[in-house]
Amino acid sequence: MATLDKPMASAKDWLEGARLRTLPAAAAPVLVGGGAAFNLGAFSIGKSLLALGVALAMQIGVNLANDYSDGIRGTDQDRVGPTRLTASGLVPARQVLAFALFTFGVAGVLGLALIAWSGHWWMVAVGLASVGAAWFYTGGSRPYGYMGVGLSELFVFVFFGLVATVGTTYVQTTNLPWWVWCAASGIGLISVALLMVNNIRDIPTDSQVGKNTLAVWLGDGASRVAYMVMIVGGLLLGAVALAGAGSTYWWLFAAALLLAGLPGAVTIAKGAKGLALLGPLRNTGLYALAYGALVGAGLALSSAI
Question: N or C: which end of the chain has fewer CB within 10 A?
Fold first, then answer.
């Protein structure tokens, strides 16, 4: 009996749909927060690993929820870049939604374990707010990611910068000096830069389907300038945080960060478009990881130097 040929999602398709290239940016705040906790004499590897699990699960959940919501709206039909599971028809929309909810559930379980360990039960509200921000980015009847007023960028800065970084430190010690917030703001800006380069790539298709991101509203040129400002701002905030935490060699870490950020920044400045922006997208994610590793290590080492 003849059967209809129907595309089946491979493991590679699922990995592409989960957008694993964004995971370094999710890990970076935990590295910074852990380094800050070490500097303050309160580092716990168990709590840091739980925080890392929450961050990674939340990032995958955001990616799959975005895939589902954009897919059912039809805004991913002509998207440039990685496979979109829902829009491509490789996976039924309900299945993508189920996996998104599952990963949010994993993040919730890990988060509850971390909260129970630290005893800060009020942070349950922070976790619920994080999931809400993740879902309503492109989900619901009026997703804020389509408004073009900068709410997406603000929420990325708050939740993937301040909350993830300061939260990692807070569950280990309630001592939060100013330089912790400065370091968190730095990774927050870099996380927003990652979102910006993604949206610069999608300006042509987003504008056609009514997805009014901040990049669409600003236009290509101004969005690239904004990207540069975020990258440089993140570097400067990281350097200030290291100096404030007592790092003698803060300038060395800052120089390493500058070198790490150059590949993506140069390509953006040259006006790369479409598929040519996949490299800068990857490099910006790696730059976020470099920030996390360098600033986190610098904060930790400054307590011993």
Answer: N
Q: Where are the alpha helices (DSSP H) in the chain?
A: 11-18, 23-39, 45-73, 85-88, 93-118, 123-135, 151-157, 164-170, 178-201, 203-209, 214-218, 220-244, 250-269, 278-301
Taking the C-alpha atoms of residue 95 and residue 228, their distance in angstroms, rounded to an integer, is 38
Per the document, the length of the chain is: 305
Sign of CA dihedral 153, 154, 156, 161: positive
Task: Convert the pLDDT of each residue in 76-116 to its tens digit.
Answer: 555 656 677 787 778 888 998 999 999 999 999 999 999 99
**Whole-angstrom Cα distance, residue 21 to residue 26?**
10
CB 138 within 8 A of CB 146: yes
pLDDT digits (tens, 9 = 90+) for 280-299: 888 899 999 999 999 999 99
Query: Of 136, 132, 138, 137, which is closest to residue 69 (Cα–Cα)?
Result: 138
> Which residue, chain included where needed, has tokens 């309160």?
42
Question: In angstroms, rounded to a whole number, what is the distance separating the alpha carbons of residues 55 and 3?
Answer: 42
- 237: exposed, middle or buried (C-beta count within 10 Å: 0-12, 13-18, 19+)? buried
Contact 152, 160 (CB under 8 A): no
Alpha-carbon distance of 296 to 287, in angstroms, equals: 13
As a whole number of angstroms, the distance between CA 127 and CA 115 comes to 10
Tokens (6 digits) for 268: 């953006």
Q: Chain centroid to CA 234: how far?
A: 14
